Amino acid sequence: MDEYSGAGELVAFGGVWAGAELRCDTEALEGLLTDDFHAVGPRGFPLDKKQWLERYDSGALVHDSFDWDDVEIRRYGDGAVALGIQSQQSVYEGRDMDGIFRVTQYLTSVPDGTWRLAALHLSPIAERPTG
Hints:
Layout: H1 9-23, H2 26-32, E1 33-40, E2 46-48, H3 49-57, E3 61-76, E4 79-92, E5 95-96, E6 99-109, E7 115-124
Helix pairs in contact: 1-2
Domain DUF4440: 17-117
Protein name: Nuclear transport factor 2 family protein
Organism: Streptomyces iconiensis
């Protein structure tokens, strides 16, 4: 994962993360998330790392598309906050889960100098902002 240690590492990390989410690639996500990763879903429910990955391992969540863009990144020492828009066409347990979400991610630099996603929070937005 040395590609996350140079210039633009956080932008590169976001692209790799979004690709792993699209592919439901739990092996890749295992390495991208901190061991104590936590997320708050779009309806306010919390998920730890095991629960996040289990949605894919069980086949309950499948994405037809998954985009991460309009990202603004602010670094704070060994941490960073990324604010962006996640748009997806997805099915969860047979139900349509298409949506557009404002996402806040907290990333942390680990001792080897690479980045990991420690937390994220999704909030649904009615429509994609323009301009």
